[in-house]
Design goal:
- The protein has 357 residues and is mostly helical.
- The protein is built from 13 helices and 5 strands.
- Strand 1, helix 1 and strand 2 form a beta-alpha-beta unit.
- It is globular and about 75 Å long.
- It binds adenosine-5'-triphosphate (ATP) and magnesium ion.
- The site of adenosine-5'-triphosphate has 20 residues, from helix 1.
Length: 357
């Protein structure tokens, strides 16, 4: 089947059993909105999960199943889009090695996203060689599908920039694309890779419950889409803002107000403005009240997703997820193998062609 739609590639790492609100506003909303206009590839980065969880392979396996269940629960549709299991796409691993030759080592080590992750995830000096490698691997994840757009949260911008740089270099070095050719013209000018752009979500960086770091699977500061209504409220109730009373003017940018912007403003702008006015002027609106209102809105948003996820937590659900993963492996390998073939040909490595089925 051929299609003329432009492509999207994006994905999640199975470092936890499901998706959180940050994923939703940072990337999932865009995936849902663009699912029909684009040929979409959603990648589950299960190899990259080993960068921090190498000693917990059974967790990574369960997390992989969990993330795919959440994808189905939010409405990503495997009959329209392809779900890509990274560990079964050999072309990605091969491209990683080939692209690694075009990215200076020091540039990888200076990548601000990696640096932030090393600090916030407390990785110390003993992180594995594979950890910085994942940044190169992510360039291969993306480029293997030759997409034009990559819907991600802000934290991924540095990675997408690196991916663009390596694609430009590849096209110039091996495909004869002139170094004055603008990125948007590279593919037309004979480059194997279109130069992909990041598409940042409605909320590029949803703050975590700690009010400091971004909401993150690995940092224990997340509300998951499958959390029970009670757990959602409990987690919100534990947020601290340092505000002493409802008559003390509150900080317009604290975590609660950021959540009002993220979850109430879109649906009910007048209510969000009223909350913010009263909160910041000390007009008798307590943190407890705001947390309650946020709990209701967030629960209403995730209720249907939670219900669909629960339906998948059955033997039949597990089978369905495995079926979707297997189907995706087959479809994804067709495209990724084609890309690898084009890349190897450009590099003079086209001695013969294997088949992966
Ligand atoms: P980990 O802690 O293991 O890195 P994570 O919570 O950062 O997990 P990822 O799988 O790394 O999740 O990210 C998946 C996608 O969700 C990426 O596009 C990322 O930019 C986006 N994303 C993750 N957290 C947030 C957030 N707090 N706000 C907006 N987007 C986010
Ligand atoms: Mg992350």
């Amino acid at each position: 089947m051929t299609t003329t739609k432009p492509r999207i590639l994006t994905g999640d790492t199975p470092t936890s059993t499901g998706l959180h609100l940050g994923h939703f506003v940072g990337s999932i909303e865009n995936r849902l909105a663009l699912q029909d206009q684009y040929e979409c590839y959603f990648l589950i980065a299960n190899v990259h999960a080993f960068t921090t969880l190498a000693d917990k392979p059974s967790d990574i396996r369960a997390n992989t199943m969990g993330i795919v269940k959440d994808w189905l629960a939010v409405g990503l549709d495997p009959s329209r889009s392809t779900f890509v299991l990274q560990s079964e796409i050999p072309a990605i691993a091969e491209l990683t090695f080939l692209l690694a030759m075009l990215i200076p080592f020091n540039k990888v080590m200076r990548n601000p996203t990696l640096k932030t992750e090393m600090t916030t995830k407390d990785m110390g000096e003993t992180y594995p060689f594979g950890f910085p490698m994942y940044a190169v691997g992510q360039c291969a994840d993306i480029l293997a599908f030759r997409p034009e757009l990559v819907p991600v949260g802000e934290d991924q911008e540095a990675h997408i920039e690196m991916c663009r740089d390596v694609a430009l270099k590849f096209n110039q070095l091996y495909c004869g694309v002139n170094n004055r050719t603008p990125p948007s013209e590279h593919h037309k000018a004979g480059g194997v890779f279109p130069i992909p752009s990041a598409k940042i979500g409605r909320v590029g960086r949803l703050i975590g419950l700690d009010g400091v770091q971004k909401m993150s699977k690995s940092l224990g500061n997340a509300i998951f889409l499958y959390d029970s209504p009670k757990d959602v409220q409990k987690k919100l109730n534990r947020i601290t803002t340092g505000r002493q009373s409802p008559t003390e003017p509150g900080d317009a940018n604290n975590v609660l107000m950021q959540y009002v912007d993220a979850f109430i403003a879109g649906k009910d702008p007048a209510r969000a403005a009223e909350i913010k006015r009263r909160y910041t002027t000390g007009d008798n609106l307590g943190d407890g009240h705001v947390k309650q209102e946020l709990g209701e809105v967030i629960n209403a948003l995730i209720d249907p997703m939670r219900a669909r996820r629960a339906e998948l937590e059955t033997p039949a659900g597990e089978e369905r997820v495995l079926g979707v993963i297997r189907d995706g492996i087959r479809k994804a390998n067709i495209i990724a193998e084609e890309t690898l073939h084009l890349a190897k040909k450009a590099m003079g490595l086209d001695f013969g062609r294997r088949t992966v089925g």
